[in-house]
Write a structure and sequence with these properties.
single chain, 15-stranded mixed β-sheet, 17 strands, 12% helix, disordered N terminus, mainly beta, globular, two-stranded antiparallel ribbon, 6 helices
């Protein structure tokens, strides 16, 4: 599922943080309960359960006419038994190597969250980052996507929509892949393959991509292989290879970079990581909305960048910070709030090189086991039990611009056979039938 927002990003490429003491302070007893509907005159009730940076910029998100429903607190969204089994079976062999590289990993959660000491372990930030990267998300991803541009409340005519697919090729926890140590194919060097096809607008229709991410990206920087990406461009009638090394560049006039998708889609060893704080937060965790492709006119607020007309829930969260090794990185650092149970991103805050807040990224999610016909179980996974991202929103607080990536039908059900996987990951398929 994680791969789907990256699809939209690849398509587009073609055409002062709060003090630690503040964040650690207990927020007290909530002034809301399950079933409450929070309107604009009641948003103060949410203040102590929101990140300070989000609250300071609440005018982007809270508006007259909003109806924010409070859902259950601390609902059980634990991953399926097959993922938990892999965690128990393999976690003791996992360790951090040079540059926070991941060593000895097979499948499941690399470092059990209940064993991580955020305050006492100097490697806690990197361990949480790896748990985030290896969180349960099904067998890959399939979705329809819609990518919109917003400028101070106006939706711009530039947009992209289409369909995409991704597949996890390595570190699979299902027992049927034990023969190859969690790989779909013997000797597999790739972690995943993903790619979209654009269906609109007309002048971009037919653009197709395929991207590989490699196992070596989990190792030290000197050993890591950059992603490979190929694109079919209808106007050229040929496939060409494009560079995906510059993942921190802005994506074709948007406020997103490739690594901003899902709050972080980068390479862990390219950053230093710190575990900053833990607290309870309220966030849009299990959406009641069915926007694109189910409906196109859902109200995302006057800026087009809000989830305040949806269900929010109280969750236990943990905040990690990355500091980039690359001196040319556009961010001084980024703070990422992550759900402690599911390891899904909730909010993140990126700071420019002057140390000023630049971008807010937040997400909506959908629980696979709630009225989700597109997300079916498979061999050894009768219930997907996946709380996956179905919308990314980014807000540039310095300019008032932003972007929204909608993938409300995203699911991680695997392809029906290895033969279909082989055809999908074949670069040659990009030109077949063209």
């Amino acid at each position: 599922m994680r791969a789907i927002a990256t699809f939209a990003g690849l398509v587009l490429a073609l055409a002062a943080p709060a003090a630690l003491g503040q964040e650690d302070a207990g927020p007290g007893t909530p002034a809301f309960v399950e079933g409450d509907v929070i309107t604009l005159d009641r948003v103060e009730a949410l203040k102590n359960f929101l990140p300070d940076q989000f609250w300071a910029n609440r005018d982007f998100f809270f508006y007259e006419g909003m109806k924010l429903e409070i859902g259950p607190s601390y609902r059980d969204y634990s991953p399926p038994e097959v993922y938990q089994r892999a965690t128990e079976q393999y976690h003791e062999q996992v360790r951090l190597g040079p540059e926070n590289s991941l060593m000895g990993y097979r499948a499941g959660q690399p470092f059990p969250m209940d064993e991580i000491d955020c305050t006492g372990d100097p490697q806690a930030g990197a361990k949480v980052a790896w748990n985030f990267v290896r969180r349960w998300s099904g067998a890959g991803g399939s979705a329809s996507f819609y990518y919109s541009y917003w400028d101070r409340g106006e939706e711009l005519p530039l947009y992209y929509e289409g369909v995409g697919r991704g597949v996890q090729l390595s570190h699979r926890p299902e027992p049927q892949y034990d023969e190859y140590d969690g790989d779909l194919f013997r000797g597999e060097r790739r972690l995943s393959a993903s790619g979209p096809e654009v269906t609109a607008p007309f002048d971009a229709r037919g653009i197709s991509l395929l991207t590989y991410r490699y196992k070596s990206s989990y190792g030290p920087t000197a050993e890591a292989k950059n992603d490979d990406t190929w694109v079919y461009v209808p106007t050229l009638r040929r496939v060409r290879r494009i560079s995906s090394a510059q993942r921190t560049d802005a994506i074709s006039g948007t406020d997103f970079t490739f690594d901003d998708l899902f709050s972080f889609s980068g390479i862990v060893p390219q950053y230093d990581w710190s575990c900053i704080a833990e607290r309870d937060l309220v966030a849009p965790v299990n959406s009641k909305v069915k926007a694109y492709p189910y409906e196109r006119d859902h109200n995302f607020g006057p800026y087009g960048l809000s989830f305040a007309d949806d269900r929010w829930e109280l969750r236990k969260a943990i905040m990690i910070r990355f500091d980039p090794h690359n001196p040319g990185h556009p961010y001084a650092h980024k703070d990422i709030w992550i759900d402690k149970e599911t390891l899904e991103p909730l909010y993140s805050f990126a700071y420019d090189r002057k140390g000023e807040l630049w971008k807010i990224i937040w997400h909506n999610h959908r629980w696979s086991d709630d009225d989700f016909e597109e997300y079916q179980g498979w061999e050894n996974v009768p219930e997907p039990r996946d709380l996956g991202v179905v919308c990314d929103i980014i807000v540039n607080v310095q300019t008032g611009t932003g972007n929204r990536i909608e993938i409300w039908d995203a699911n991680g059900t695997p392809m029906k056979s290895k033969g279909r996987v082989r055809r999908f990951i074949d670069v040659g398929r990009l030109t077949r039938g063209r």
